[in-house]
From TrEMBL:
GO terms for cellular component: myosin complex. It holds the Pfam family Myosin_TH1. Residues 47-217 form the TH1 domain. Transmembrane segments: none annotated. It comes from the Eukaryota. This is MYO1H protein. GO terms for molecular function: cytoskeletal motor activity. The gene is Myo1h. It comes from Rhabdornis inornatus. InterPro entries: Myosin_TH1.
Length: 217
């Protein structure tokens, strides 16, 4: 009887401690924990660097709304901007690296060049999000094959866990995130496909190899 009573009191004490902790959380801290839960579900045990990322809190955004060109703000007016970060975008054909901004709103993702919107992806049409199991910062946003889209978007992000987590939460498509090994296929446009190969080397680099594939080291 004493052991049963002790166990019951232990559970009650633990429940009270948890309740006290949860009630003491700030809205910001609660948001961080909710995001980290999604990151864990997507990347835990799958991608290198995940464990190191646990201690690094996600920022609300890497750039503020007023850092965007006024013309871009005018083009996406009416949409609630949630997150902005610098990225490197790789062309789908020649794989030339270009500096861009990734803007995530409540309903769409935008790839932005200075005062131009280069591509808009509505979350409702998003087909998938792919990244590798290695420590690179490459993410591929897969889009539908239609006239409005030029093809899948290949980006390199400094804060890959943060970017993918924000994107899949806003798009509500956590189940569509894939962590791949070795290689992945992406759509170039007009029914064509390209291949990206992931490998390990002495220093990080991204280049077009002799076979025409995009190689990520």
């Amino acid at each position: 009887f004493l052991m049963q009573t002790s166990e019951m009191l232990r559970k009650i004490c633990m429940r009270n401690l948890v309740r006290k902790y949860c009630r003491g959380l700030t809205a910001e801290r609660k948001g961080q924990l909710q995001q980290k839960v999604v990151t864990s579900a997507v990347f835990c045990g799958k991608k290198e660097g995940y464990l190191e990322s646990l201690s690094q809190p996600f920022l609300e955004t890497r750039l503020k709304e007023n850092d965007l060109n006024p013309k871009v703000l005018q083009l996406i007016r009416g949409e609630n901007i949630k997150y902005v970060t610098p990225v490197i975008k790789y062309d789908r054909n020649g794989f030339k690296a270009r500096e861009r901004l990734l803007v995530l709103t409540q309903s769409s993702a935008y790839v932005v060049e200075m005062a131009k919107i280069k591509q808009k992806i509505e979350y409702s049409t998003l087909k998938g999000i792919s990244t590798s199991n290695l420590s690179d910062g490459i993410v591929v946003i897969h889009v539908p094959e239609d006239k409005q889209q030029k093809g899948d978007v290949i980006l390199q992000c400094e804060h890959i866990f943060e970017v993918v987590t924000k994107l899949c939460i806003l798009a509500n498509k956590q189940s569509l995130v894939k962590v791949v090994k070795g290689s992945l296929r992406f759509r170039v446009g007009s029914g064509k496909e390209g291949t990206m190969v992931f490998t390990v080397g002495p220093e990080p680099q991204v280049f077009k190899d002799k076979t025409g594939q995009l190689t990520v080291v």
